[in-house]
Each structure stands twice: as structure tokens, then as C-alpha cells.
């Protein structure tokens, strides 16, 4: 049992990260000051706005809460704690008895559910049910493909946990259930590798809400990426003045890719590579296709590199191309146990190594639809 709740609010950056090494009961006790503030704040945010307007696999438009959870790595208990802390699931002794409690909130999970921990199968099953329950409640759950999912589709089981493999029914059954034509294998092959979530802020000042002001110091307000979807871009333009877009990816969308591809294009290209591909074919794609190689959006650690000026310059270029304001990624464990916020709040590194395989901090990131200087 955890013993205290830490609430980290970075209001100036428009981001609230709820980090806990604490008893979740404290969050609901009037006597626990920090926990009580966290609960009240979440309840206030959840009551306003128009809810989810669009809920697609790689695109969401909403005025509701947007919550992100990064790498889980087979640790169902920590995921349960994180989602309960965020107010997205009901309390319960086990995941099978917990249900969606987030109403019209949006949850984004940035990939790497698989490997290193024992509970991968149960996590996929639980998230599948939560996704259906969220839609029924007016909410939305988005799951992204991570590099460890890709590795497993390619038959690379170096990081497989013994208990996890036993849940699959053994090595042969694991590989069979991840191959093309199986329900889980096809589900993973169809997952997006990036998503854009546009938040509608009813309290935003339209004069302060144009893309050029938020893509980095000095503006740079780019237009639509080449090959983008005009229908989707026009739909988001109709919200201009109150719209704030965050790009989600497992490791990060490189600027070179964003210059020629929209998020929709990227997902379409990766899906075409993976759908119907056998284990051996996925393995070949993984070592030959630039989208899936080391500097691609499942593997790159560019956005976690120490040179702030260079990293932020590439980030601003990418955001300008995708006509977005911020990016949140997982993949690179933050040794502080807390999400790292860079580039004036426009980049969030959310992987805190919360799986007990890493021993990091339990974390949930709630994003607000603004940046305040």
C-alpha cells in the first residue's frame, strides 16, 4: 500500500501531472489536504465543456479532460492505481471488477504495454473493455503502438517476462496469438503510432490562440502537412480560437517525417506495412523501413537528448508542420520518477518507469488546453 499523494501542478505550462507513491483512499478523504485538492480539481474539470466531439483511433476533438499514461510494461496493478488516481476507473480489488468512471474524459496510452511484466494479456483485455465503456459514457480511449509491441510482432521476445508468456500459454502460443490473423495480432497491427488530440477551451482568449503563437518562440505557424486530410484539417479549423492540439506518439514524431506526412498519413503507411504481415515480414520491415527504424517514431530518443536548443528547434519545426501546439511521448524513462517538461511546455516526456520492472514513479499526466507564458 502506498503512503502519500504528491500533486505536481505546472499551471504556467498548462499541464498537471499527478504523481503518487500513496494510498488512493487519501485522495478521497477530506483530511488529506493535497489529495483533496487533487480530487476537487479533477471533479471541477470533468463537469464543464461539450464533451468528446470526435473519437477516432488516431484523432480526438474534445472539451473534456485529457489524461495520458505512458509505458506500462505488464504491470496491471500500477496501471489500475494510475487510472484510479486520475478518477478514470472505479475502485475494486481487481481489474476485472473495475469499470470506466471517467465520463466524457479522454485517455491516451502511449504504447509499450507488453514485455517486462506478468500481466500483458489481462491489461489488453481490461483496456478493451474500458474502451467500450468509455464510448458508452461519452468518453474516448486511444491506444498507441510502442516499440515493444513491434518487437513482439517481429518475434523478438528478448524482454518477455516468464509469467507473461505463461499467460499467453507458452512461447509457441504467444507467437501464434501475436501473428497475423489472430485477434490480438491484428489489433496490434492496426494500432496507430501517433494521434492528435484537439482540446476545445471555452475559456480561451481567441487573440492568444493561433498556431503561429504556440509553435515556438518567434512563431513559425505552419500550414497543413503535405498529404494531409483536407476534411479533417478544415474541421479542426472550425474550432480556431478555442482549439489546442497535442500530438501523442510513443517515442516522438521526427521533424523529417512531419514535413511530408500528416498524422493520418503516418498511421496509414505503418498500417499498410503491418496488416497481414507475418512475423518474418514484420521483422524485415523493422530493419528496412525508415518509419520503423531507430530514428523513426517508435524508437527515437531525439526528444530526450540533453541539447535543449537543438531538441526544441526540431520540436517546433515538427509542430509547425503538423499544425499542433505540443507533443507528449513515452519510451525514455525519466530518472526523476516524474514527467519531464521541456521547450516552454511544448514537450512532455511522460515515461516515469512506473512498472515495477523499473521501480519508477507512478504517474498520470493531465493536459490543459493552453500554454501560459
UniProtKB/TrEMBL annotation:
Residue ranges annotated for the Calcineurin-like phosphoesterase domain, each copy included: 65-199
Provide the residue span(s) of the region labelled Disordered.
202-239
Sorted UniProt keywords: Signal
One Pfam family this sequence matches: Metallophos
Please verify whether the record's keywords include Signal: yes
Domain of life of the organism encoding this protein: Eukaryota
The Gene Ontology terms for molecular function here are: hydrolase activity
Per the record, where are the segments of Gly residues compositional bias? Answer: 216-226
Q: Which Gene3D superfamilies match?
A: 3.60.21.10
Q: So which residues are the signal peptide here?
A: 1-22
Q: What is this protein called?
A: Shewanella-like protein phosphatase 2
**According to the entry, what is the taxonomic lineage of the organism?**
Eukaryota, Sar, Stramenopiles, Bigyra, Labyrinthulomycetes
